[in-house]
Structures are given as structure tokens and as C-alpha cells.
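The aim of this short unit is practical: by the end, you should be able to scan a pair of folded records and say something sensible about each. We start with the first protein, listed as its amino acid sequence and then its C-alpha cells.
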Amino acid sequence: MAEVISIPRQVLHQEVVTRLRQRLVEGQIAPGAKLNERELSAALQVSRTPLREAIKMLAAEGLVELLPNRGAVAAQFSAQDVIDTFELIAGLEAMSGELAAQRITETELAEVRALHYEMLAAYTRRDLSTYYRLNAQIHACVNTAARNPVLTQTYRNVNARLQALRFRSNFDDRKWARAVQDHEELITHLTARDGPAVRALLVRHLEHKRDAVLELMQRGELPTAAKESA
């Protein structure tokens, strides 16, 4: 029997990608777990064709791995992967932040402030899902304000791989509160057009994220991939 598609066909593909991405980012599908097409088709109320297309797109983003004889599994990082990738994203965010401080318009700055206030409301409710979505929008807005399309594309490609880990970095209340404080300072430095201060803040912010993820790995609360020999 054909499955009922509850999503309008014209937006079906993107909706499936969005819903599946959210499951991966928020840990509803654990790192290293196999993506069961039958179960996901039923849960998302779509046929397997758009689901498989979504899996391929998320594999391109780095959230899914396509393994020979195993199918699709949720991406899993080793500790060294975390160190290397956060090192890169910290450099990219630092560069975009410093350029944004010079180039951001008042309209863009107002949008960042508005998103920040919405994010604070989500933080107050302890609504991590909404908080993370708004947080990601803020970082994307800062990157866009840098006015460097090559930097933006590189940032998007690298950051896509880290979404699930950045989400988990807020599981500890103390670390989450520190992240919120970092965003308060970000608004202050952007308003002052202080590029070096924005750069330094974003490097520190990403280092805190990295350390939070590594701590989860060390405590065994986040599955860690072992590096396979070639």
C-alpha cells in the first residue's frame, strides 16, 4: 500500500530534509546508528524515494555517512575529528565576525539583535530546539554580513558537519549559560564595530564548544568513532 504523503508535493523534498536533519542534529538518531528507511518513512509520512534523496543531501552535508554494505548511518566523529573541525570553524567564524564588524548594516544589526532577544526567550523556557535554531541563524547572519561569498560557502560546508555537536554542547547548564553570555558580548562588539574583539570572542566561543563536546565524549555520553586504518 502506498504511504500517505502529508507534506505538499512542491515542498516535499525540502521538508523531508529539514525534518530528517532535525532528528540527526537533536540526537533522535544517535551518532553511528543506522538510518532505518522503513521506520523513517512511517515517522515522516513519506515514501522512500524522497527519503533517499534527503539522505543523499544530508550525506553531502556530512550529517550522514553512506557505508558499503551498511547503508546510511548517522555521522560519528572521533576526538581528533572534533579538534580538527572546530579548529577550522573557529578560524572561519573569527574571520567572518571581524569582517562583519566592519561591513554590517544597521538593518542587519537590528535583525541580529531581534534574533538574540528571541533566543533569550527560548533560553529562559529551556527550549533547546528553538534556541539552537535561532542561535544558528545569528551565526549565519554574521557570516552573511561579512560580504564574502567564498567565505560564506566554505563556512556553510564546514558548519553543516558540526550541527549535531554544536547542539549537544549546550546540554550542560553552566556551558549553556556561558554561550548565552558570549552572544551578549557579540552584540556589544558588533554594535561598537570592534572587529578584533569580535574575532577573539568567536574563537573563544568555538573553543568552549569544542571542549564541551570532548568532555561529553570523555564521559561516554557521546559515541566516539574510532579511526579506521586504510
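Turning to the second protein, read its sequence before its C-alpha cells, just as you did above.
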Amino acid sequence: MTSFPKAFSVLALLLATVGGAAAADPKVTRQSERIEHIRIVSTKPFDETAAALERSLPDIDPGVRRALAEGDEARAKQLENGHTLFIFLKRNFGELLPGEPLQRERLQVVRRPAKAHQYEIGNPVTATRMTRHQVAAALYAPLRVVLYENPAGGSTFEYDRPSTLFGRFGDRRVTSVGRELDQELANALEQAAR
């Protein structure tokens, strides 16, 4: 039979070991990457460009997410209805930015809100083709795109080239999907900007 003090010291040693492992400092690594940034400048007004993009890329169907969660990739592909890209989310980023001065009233400047939208664009089926090989690829899926009214009164898209984002994982299967996204995203944005 084990005495209480001996059992207590074994338990204390075990807790200290487990607690020590849990309290260990995380391992942090850093690496620099070369990311290619793309800018598409158009003379087309912001509102027209935003409307064109939103007409060409539908909002994501919640059924696609459900089908993927249930492991039914065939059903998810069917629900895509021929579209390669979707808008996951649109933020009116212009509400957060100072706009053009409209008038001055007793030292206060009334401003027209800036025109800027931030979009999350992608395809959940395409994302699973990458994240099944590299879960960290979820960092860039869906992709972020910003559209804003430029100083000339036209519109500008900016984004980072998908293959350079996904290429950082060093997995040819992930990079290959990133290259597909390069073309799909460029096509969609350039068409909206025309």
C-alpha cells in the first residue's frame, strides 16, 4: 500500500510535468515571402464596376457549405451551377474611410463617404482541393479583393496573386490550384472593370 505522502508527491510530480508541458513557450517561426500584388485601374465609375462584379459572381450558396460538411463533394459541385468563383462576403470599407469634403460648417467638414468595398471571393470546393493537402492554405481562402474609387473618378481593384499566396506552402498540388485561381480571378475582375 502506498503511503499518502508518497502518492501525493508522485501526483504532484505528474501534475508539474503535465502543467510544465502545457505552459511551454510556443515555437514561433518567421519567413519572408515574395507576393505579387496586382492592380487593375479602370475609367469605369465605381458603382458600375461594383455592380458588374456582383452580377458576374453570385453570393455563395449555403447548400454548398452543407454538402461539403456532409462530405458530398459531387452535390457541392452541382450546386455551383457552373460558377467558378463566388462572393463570400462584401464589406463596405468606405464607411470607415474619410471621403470628399462637401462643405464647411463652423470649422466642421462634412464629408461624402469614400467608395470602397472589400470582397472575399473564392470557391469552397476549390478551397478543399488545397486545404486537404495543406490546412494552412485556409489562411488565404477565400481571397481578399479591394475595389475603390480612384482619384480620377474611375475604379481600381487590388489583390495579391493567388499562386504567390498559395505557392508559399511548397506543395505543387496547392500551387497548381492557386494558378487556376490566378486566371479565374483576373478574368472576373478585368471583365467587371471593362
